[in-house]
Amino acid sequence: MTTVAPPLTRTATIDNQSNLIWKIADLLRGNFKQYEYADVILPLTVMRRLDSVLAPTHDQVQERYLAFKDKLDNLDPVLTRASGQKFYNTSRLTFTDIAANTKDHALNLREYIQGFSPNVRELFTEHFGFMTQVDRLDGADLLYTVLQGFSTVDLSPARVSNLEMGYVFEELIRKFNEQSNETAGEHFTPREVIRLMVNILFSGDEDALRVPGTVRTVYDPTAGTGGMLSIAKEHVREHISPTANIRLFGQELNPKSYAVCKSDLLIVGEDESHIRLGNSLTQDGHAERQFDYMLSNPPFGVDWKNIQKAIDAEQELGFDGRFGAGTPRVSDGSLLFLQHLISKMKPEGSRIAIVLNGSPLFTGDAGSGESEIRRWILENDLLDALIALPDQLFYNTGISTYIWVLDNNKPEERRGKVHLINAAGLSRKMRKSLGDKRNEISPEQITEIVELYRAAAQTDSSLVKVFDTTDFGYRKVTVERPLRLNYQASEERIRRMNDKKPLQKLPRETAAALVEGLLSMGEEIHRDRKAFELLLHGTLLKARVKLKTPELKAVLEALSERDDTADIVLDKDGQPLPDPELRDTESVPLSEDVTTYFQREVQPYAPDAWINTDIRDHKDGLPGKVGYEISFTRYFYTYTPPRPLEAIQQDIRTLEAEIMTLLKDLNV
Hints:
By secondary structure, the chain is α/β, with parallel strands linked by helices. Among the domains are: 1-182, Ferritin; 485-562. The protein is 42% helix and 13% strand. It contains 27 helices and 17 strands. A nine-stranded mixed beta sheet has the order 3-2-1-4-5-7-6-8-11, with helices on both faces. Strands 12, 15, 16 and 17 form a four-stranded antiparallel beta sheet that branches. Helix 2 (37-54) runs parallel beside helix 14 (255-267) and helix 3 packs antiparallel against helix 4 (76-83). The radius of gyration is 35 Å and the shape is elongated.
């Protein structure tokens, strides 16, 4: 069995440090709204972490700064070499110094922030907007107390690893979002889910990653605080090749999450300039780049109406843009993120792992944007696997989720195939719930899921189903039935003409003559439209009533009723007119001939039906519209027969006997 990297479990360190910081947030009560707590606590947590990382080299940086500040225009190379990091701080003070002082806290803190290297300073001044919070804390006489609280929290690398620090950030942000009633779509990815995605993403590429000098890129367009990126690199370095050169790229919409992500990458020595701020759907921060590996957990069910104009404009570019396959409904932009990732696949081969809810699998009828996107993905053999995850796995939503695994350079044995893996039952209950997260995937279960994925091409079991890409396609054809009407010039039907708009504008004299003429026809029921039209024309001629074509059509509609025994209504070319009320559709599997299907499934029950050949697919030009959907649960449904009647009756008799015994005891 393949060894899979285990996920980091929640440690006492993570809980202790998170709780200590959370208690500091309580100090803000009364002077700050709950939704404002994060504006203070998150930047101070980042600041405390950065200060702890720089502490061992603080004196060396001061020495180099004083020695070269008047000699060099660019001090960055000298000071980063002295700090051993990609950032530094030239302030004579440390965070602990400021907290220990009994005065000038705001002044000292501002000086300390200005002492950071530009790549860190901008995080506090621009993205966190922390200078405003310094003034508010100072004005409320809280700055000293809050700084003292943070000075007691040990966030040094010796105490809290980079991975644990990511957990601390994640836990704080989750709590702040719960307090401020963020929507369920604003969720965070549990670390064990990221571990599962990363293990699958690099599966099969281990040998290539071990080649000396290998350089690979990893990208997340919804980077958040950077958890997916950091775990991806850690996985490769610890479990595949410690010398592999993994370069991280990402983009994040939320300025505070962006700032946390950049600071986290700075701490571990990454090039933080590869993380961009903005909406990756409208402001692609890596427009000219393609990547080897991509991960993402975009927000579930979030609409894109506010960016629709930009998306539609790019969609008009076709495949010269990112959304050439189509656009989904504005209520859910998940498939936009998926297309964005696909646009960044390298021609020689890239792999994608993205978490989506169930909607992108089946929402949208044949010809809709969602269906066309699925069609494009499957017809180009990009989808490798779909993995159903357990429910109640995410912090802020309990819905079912799926990992989509895409590969544009599949191994030979997986080409033309899609592997569905039902891992919905592979979880364990948590001892303590975290928001809506009540389940977690254990290390052993991650190993099992990854093994199912690796062996999927040779497996077809209760947990794995293998399909051809065309198995998810169907042709939706429109089936018509002929229109059959009878006609009668009865008083009741004549009164219906009052509801017909074309007739409501007739002059009063014309309308009166029309009614008088129709009443003269009698109330005989006519089942032959042509014969009735001849009779009607004669009546109108005799009544000296001239009607325009729309008005004549309205009269015929008012005087008609559906009648299965009537003759078929024909058009001017002698062809049957379809009855809109009897119109139906049939979904024919792509693997089956439409005519054969129609003759077997429709004609025996409706001999007069026919296929509407005017409605044709925009790609192949054949009747009907091609659609694609993946009804995941249907493929794994297991029929459970009802219990035998005799067993149910026996249970009833047993219960009746127990009730009678209890009643007797009561009488005693």
